[in-house]
Amino acid sequence: MADPGYTSNYSADAPGNATPTHPSYYDYMTAAFLGHCSGLPPPGLDAAAGGEQPLSTLDPDSNQSGTCARLAVEFYNRQEGNSPITLDRAKDSHKFFSQGTAYFHVNFKAAFDGGSGHCYTFFAEVEGPGGVPESATMVVQFHTKEERRTRDNCLYCTGLSHPEEGGFVGHDGGEGGDDDHNNGN
What we know:
The chain is an alpha+beta fold. It has helices spanning about 25-35, 65-80, and strands at about 85-100, 100-110, 120-130, 135-140. It has two domains: about 5-35, no CATH class; about 50-185, Nuclear Transport Factor 2, Chain: A.
């Protein structure tokens, strides 16, 4: 976040002088920092939930991960043959652009049987031609700990569980890093 009058807030007396001259510069920077931090999750999240914030404490439309997870659950529940799932919590997401379209990879937890059963980890890909999440294109459930481990098979993001078999934008099949979407296939 840049101060519109950034250069006017510094004295030009000597080269390299970085002394603020505007009396409200400190206030501006403090407010900018606090504004950024106000969107961060509060300390003391439930350790039993792996440090994740339960969806009930988040507005799913106010953050990227929650929005992507909600769209993924809706997509999954519309697919023929899938048992309905209920979103428990959004875990993490990553946004990237490929060929001018925004894509989001998200991990979330959901339960079968209306939320009364065991929660499973899912991966979803959501696209948003306008730069915001609009629709899910795939959802994959991880059944085992091995399936949900973090893999280095995505060209665009790290730290998320991705399906080993690919099928998502950015899949790196280990053959030089090409993905089907960037090759026009």
